[in-house]
Each structure stands twice: as C-alpha cells, then as structure tokens.
Design goal:
Distance between the termini: 20 Å
Largest sheet: 4 strands, mixed
Number of helices: 15
Oligomer: single chain
Number of domains: 3
Number of strands: 4
Order of helices and strands: EEHHEEHHHHHHHHHHHHH
Strand order of the largest sheet: 1-2-3-4
Strand content: 5-15%
Structural class: mainly alpha
Length: 388
Amino acid sequence: MASSAAAFRLFGFPVHVRPGFLMFMVLIVMINGAEFGLALAFFLAVFTLIHELGHAFAARATGAEAEISLDFLAGYASFVPTRPLLKWERVGISFAGPGTQIVVGTLTYLAVGGRGLLPEHEPLQMAVWWAGPIIGLFNLIPILPFDGGNIVQVGIEAFAPRYARQIMYWVTLVIAGGAIAYMLVEPDMRFLVFFAAIPLVTVVQMMSYDRERTRRRGEQEAAARAEALAWATDDVRAFPPSHVPSPWYRAWQQLRAGDADVARQVLLADFNDPEAPRWWPPDAAPTGALRDLVALLPRPLPVGRPFDTFVLGDVLLRTGSAMEAGSYAAHAYGQTRSPMLAVLVARAAAVGGDRTTAMAWLDAAARDADPDALAIAVSRAPELAALR
C-alpha cells in the first residue's frame, strides 16, 4: 500500500498524485502541441483515474481495501485482500480497469461526435479515442505488467502454478523484444520503440527483484536454521557469511558463564547499533533462558533499533508477559511507527481477550505495512488465531 498522504479521496478511495504524473501530462502537451496536447493530457488523466477506479471497485467487491496512485506513464490500484482471492476474482479485478476504460471511453467518444472505428482529424475526438478505448485495449495485451498479462498469468496458474510468473516473464521478453526489433527496421514505427521498451524494462526489473528476494529468503532460512542449531548444540559454524549469532544467544553464553553484566551489555549494545541487523531472532531459544535474559534488562525497557525493539516485544509475549509486551510495543510504536510493533500490540491485546483493541492496532499496522509482510506476520501469530 502507498504510504504517502493521499492528495484526495474519491468514492472513499485514497488517491495519490505523484509529481511524475504531472510531469508526464506536461510532456504530453509539449510533444503534441497546445490544441491536441491539452485535450490528450486532460483525457489521459481522466481515463487513467477511471481505469484505476475500475480496479479499485472490483477489489472492494471482494472485501479488500484499495487505493490509487497516479505516477509517471502509469496509474495503479493497490489493494490488501482480506482473504485468499479466487482465480475468477483476480481475473475480474484485472479486467475491470481496462474494461471500464474501454466502455467509458467509447461512450465519451460517441458523445463528442465520434463516428466509426477511426476518428476524424478533430483534436477532441482523437484525444478521447486514444486516451480511452485504444489505451484500454492496449492494456489487454497479454504481457506483463499490463492487465492482460496478469489475466493470462492466472490462467497459466491453473496448470503450472509454480512457474506461471516465470512463464509470463519470458512471454513478455519475447513479445516485447520482437516488437522492438520490428519497430527498429520499420521507419514509420520507430517512434513507438520507447513505448515497447517499457514492458521490457519493467519485466527485467521484476526478474531482478525476484532473484534478490529469493536470495535473501535463502539466507534468512539458513540463518534461522543456524540460530536454532546454536541454541540446541552451541555450534555456531552453520551461519551463512551474511549473518551472525543473535545477541540473545551471545548474551545467554555470557550468562551461563556467570557474567551477568557482560550479558546485559551485549543485549543493550545491539539496541544502539546503527547498522542493519545481521542476525535471526531467537525463535528456538528455551523460554526459561529468554526469561532470565529479560530479567537482566533495565526498566523502563530499552527502545532503539526497530528490529531489536520488535524482537524484545516478541520475547516478552513468548515468556508470558503479555501486558508488559503490549505497553512496551505501544510506547515504542509512538517513537518509530513500525507496523510490526503495531502487530505486537494487537497480539498482546488478543491474549487478554480485547478483540476491539487488537483489531484497531491491526488497522494501524495496515496503514504502513507491506501487505505480504503483514499477512505473514498475522498468519504466524498464534495469539491472533481467533481473529483471522
């Protein structure tokens, strides 16, 4: 979900207008001249918003909360499902945008005097024709990131769910690459190369992002296994080069050796570390060990790097201190606005049976959280089982 303040609300949907969108409108006018350019820029803005409203209304029909962003060369509707969507619902959400744009654009074209499949050289009719039905149809081309590509991907998932995304990546590369090659050899088509390159570049970026996400996930899984092995056997040799044992494990080593002061300092030092954390939470630690380590910390409990703060709140929950965990996470949230801290408060409230407070804090988390990360956090929280 977009995190910047909404420029305005339309039919209850927050609408964000990015500077890039305004720049794009100015470029349209500069390239096409005042008479045609102003009309084209106006109807591009109107039909882009109508297109995204189609997506947003379709998402709302499934129970999802949606919002709209208008940016350079594009608009997009983002939404957070409240349940797993059926395939036909995903297809419907994808089709609703271009479908609405085509219908409204065609009606507008007829209203301004347009007749036939091709407009006359009348600036207003041409602007409506291109900004409305033509771009709507263009969005149904079966390549990513267009709506047509998302629709085809859902179809591929019916027989190859694990590879649907990758298949669509390669379909897009082949079609967009072929289109660019054709346009380069046809002088009359060369001005369209830039537009054909947009899906090509976008998919290359998506592939790069997926590879990086897969790499990070692999490192995190290896770090989680190594952390669990360390708590079970004191063997720390399994950590990948990108990760180290958690400060909780290192503090437990010091506490077992009889040096409580050093153990306390190990925990406190990590709260003030400005670098990105390179350790996995002590998910496999015995509850008794964690309880002994928490007892070493000063009161009020330290608040520092958001990751450390979140882990401490989670440890408090695991050790049975739900009230202290909720108060601590709520106080820390007031300083950092971390969505995961809001989830912690919700979990603590749920332990106490306060469903209203738990739902309110989950709503606060949803305002700023990455939808996938929030869904995972909620699904893995045993305290929220009754609320799911």
